[in-house]
């Protein structure tokens, strides 16, 4: 599975419009454990190796995909 995440900075007006008709569904709490070596080679290269809840994940910058 590949998940693509894009972050946006909203203006207060944009946030108001998005939340105007929104209804709270549920709160999700994730438990993350991050892994790297003593010199943080992964983190310094924009890679995030973690165990989220019971599942391992590797986050890779978009420019690395298919390179």
Could you explain the architecture of this structure?
The model has no long low-confidence stretch (mean pLDDT 91). The relative contact order is 0.14. With 67 residues, the chain is of the alpha+beta class. The protein contains 2 helices and 3 strands; from the N terminus they run αβαββ.
Overview in brief:
The protein has 67 residues and is α+β, with helices and mostly antiparallel strands. The chain has helices at residues 12-19, 41-44, and strands at 32-35, 48-52, 55-59.
Q: Which terms summarize this structure?
A:
single chain; 67 residues; alpha+beta; three-stranded antiparallel β-sheet
The largest β sheet comes out as: 3 strands, antiparallel
Individual helix count: 2
**Integer-rounded radius of gyration:** 16 Å
Strand content: 15-25%
Shape: elongated
Helix/strand class: alpha+beta
**Total strand segments:** 3
What's the SSE pattern?
A: HEHEE
Q: Mean pLDDT, nearest integer?
A: 91
Major sheet strand order: 1-2-3
Can you tell me the residue ranges where pLDDT is under 50 for at least 5 consecutive residues? none
Task: Kindly state the percentage of residues in helix.
Answer: 10-25%
Spatial gap, N to C terminus: 18 Å
């Amino acid at each position: 599975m590949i998940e693509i995440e894009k972050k946006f900075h909203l203006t207060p007006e944009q946030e108001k419009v998005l939340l105007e008709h929104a209804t709270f569904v549920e709160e999700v709490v994730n438990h993350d454990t991050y892994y790297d070596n003593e010199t943080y080679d992964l983190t310094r290269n924009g890679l995030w190796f973690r165990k989220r809840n019971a599942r391992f994940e590797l986050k890779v910058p978009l420019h690395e995909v298919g390179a």
